[in-house]
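Need tokens for this chain, all 437 residues.
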Amino acid sequence: MFSLSAIPFILLPLTIARPIDLDGNGIPDFCVPQDNGSTLCLDPNGKWIEPPSQDVVAPQTTSPQPTATTGTQNPTDSTAPLVALPTASSLPPLNPFGKTADFASAKGTKWDISYIGDIKYTGSLATKSVYGDKCRTSKIGSKVIWNCGDMSCNPNVDVCGFAMGPAFYGTDDVMTIDTDDVTSVQNNNFVEPWVGDAQPEAPQTSWGMDTSNVAPINDTHGVAFARQIWRGAPDGSYADQGNAVASITLGQTMPKATRVGPLLTGPDIAELGLVAILRDGEYIYVYSMAGPSKVAVSRVPASDDVFDRANYESLVYDPDSLYTMGTWHAGLPLKDTSSSASSPSSPNTNTASPIYGMTTLEPLYTIICNIFMSFTNMYLSDTPYGPWSTGYSLLSEVSGYGSHAHPEYSEEGGRTIYFSQGPNGQFQMYKVTFDGY
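Here are the structure tokens for all 437 residues:
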């Protein structure tokens, strides 16, 4: 198994307007480079502006609505009960491709990477200039699910609408998404607020949702996580609400996401699953951006247990050891945790920041990640929770964001893998082959 995203130039208005950041990831959405080297971004009022700065707007961390349960919020708490022990090792993690320099020099002989084109669509969207910031894939039964972020069509939202996180079915081709019945992408919205969630309050005007990939529970049902925010304020700020969890089923023309209750957690907990989620054995593994390695790993039984935070446990990193895996403790990692994470391969290794995408290279688990919107790396482990190998560079100095692997289309047991990335343009697809390993 191989578990290895013609605009007129105008002057900046006197009233400073922040670019839209709908998914709250600190990266402006809807930004387009100009021929003169500047960049224009869409502000919340629908005007194209030159961004005043690239500073991340600090979110408000209020959560007025209730969450599913209280439970243990911080797995690093010394009173948290020990739940299970992963297979720990005092040895360095595996580096199956040798030193990073050796891997780099083997490009073109033992492995290779190529850009194979932009993702295509069927139906009326086939002739449209569709863009967004990332696309993730999953599979329930025989159905491949694509869910994407910040999707619309050039040159404006009148062409095919706008959706924060639409979902579609795949085809048998990694390059083509089934959009036969889609004219407005917002009609395919995926995870949405629960009916009982508190409504956005001024200055916020609307919802925002950043959604994970889907992990199967069985052949007809799955689960997905989402980070829910309020957004739309004139100053570009947003109010972080917390983590949602949804039941995923297979509709006739598109996958369906159903919220079955209030938020799973408030905003103090890490953004669950926005790295990736993975079904492995009897567990759903949840990868979140937190901790010393930038990857916090949690897990929950692959059942209705996903809807109750009391059923989750997280890996607690041992800061006194370079390589020991640590232990599983009840609870979920805090957003600012310093100890709940999959251990890095060395003290100086950041496994990713940010990362997107689990895929597989038999028999290894692999994280595909994008760093600083310019570098795409992979990290490998022989367990779904690490420790991870050194980082192997797949792609460098290529502008991109939200690199996400598509293991549903892997070939030859993962010897050939695919990943796509944005940002805010057509989704680019890359093919990686490992014929010499």
